[in-house]
Amino acid sequence: MKLRGIELRRVSMPLVSPFRTSFGTQTKRDILLLKAVTDDAEGWGECVALADPLYSSEYVDSQVDVLRRFLLPKLASPEGQAAIARSGAAAVAGLLHPFKGQRMAKAAVEMAILDAELRGLGRSFGRELGAVADRVPSGVSVGIYDSVPQLLTVVQGFLDAGYVRIKLKIEPGWDLVPVAAVRERFGADVPLQVDANTAYTLRDARHLAKLDEFDLLLIEQPLEEEDVLGHAALARQMATPICLDESIVSAQTAAAAIALDACQIVNIKPGRVGGYLEARRIHDLAAAHGLAVWCGGMLETGIGRAANVALAALPGFTLPGDISASDRFYQTDITEPIVMADGHIAVPAGPGLGVTPIPEVLDAVTTSAEWIPF
Ligand SMILES: CC(=O)N[C@@H](Cc1ccc2ccccc2c1)C(=O)O
Ligand SMILES: [Mg+2]
Fold first, then answer.
1. Does the model's ipTM exceed the 0.95 cut?
2. What class has domain 3-122+356-373?
3. Where would you find the membrane-spanning parts of this chain (predicted)?
């Protein structure tokens, strides 16, 4: 496979409604898309970095910069071209390993090259990754609201839409009361979990343990991302399973967290861990230790969303993910909308991602595009 170049494209997409979490309120998404052009096909990658370094240390301008100055020149070098010609996308992580961190940029470029490679081979992402299902259950992430009645109206809407699992964002001051209200209104059988996005400390352990009465599936990332020992201590003080998100940035950090009993469940996000191939390694590692995993979301467009559906079809993804339909976040997606049918989303069967951007829609939301020839 000969890589001719990569196009860096920024798109700006308004959210259908403000999405508030413990780290702020988002009303639009500033997204970096990559298009890899090879002799055989074009492939697409999506960088999940936010505009600001509020979820992780990456932010979209930093990922553009590191791609332009370091990552793409390395892939374009004679060494890079030879390795990619020989091994395709499987060579990317090794080539980029000398550059520390920047996992969301690395994930996006590996994804674009993998998509081009698979389209050229006529193989789907699902087939390549090891999907064992042709549809996956769809959960939904619900933000923080100004009032409980407002929250209950939103949850009712998502349950009516058919989402099979509800995830509530929580933060100090918005946790026990909204969770109790959802349980009270919708009953004990609705699969329910919470996500704190690192908002608590170990001093909150006794408070967080009060969540145990609500029979939650898990509590996601209660403490800050580097506090692996704190999560292990918290796990000993509450019954609700601890799930890590921000803390798990690679198979290595997953292995450490599992060995330290810092988590019983892992939220896998390919963009956070450096790509779909590393995501599969984490899936395999978790399965070897008997841990359930599920696929998290970063408000991806249909590009990232389609790839996440394929990943979520692997056997170890036994909990519903945050792979909602496109209309959870976007009025108009840049691909054919990803839709949910009785609580499930079909795994795309076409070559590569199985979806491609719709040119006129993509152009309408594009704020910049830059071709980087190899
Ligand atoms: C679906 C979900 O809750 N995702 C992340 C948090 C998150 C929240 C807000 C975001 C806004 C713009 C881009 C990515 C974002 C990710 C999580 O699981 O922790
Ligand atoms: Mg999370």
1. yes
2. alpha beta
3. none
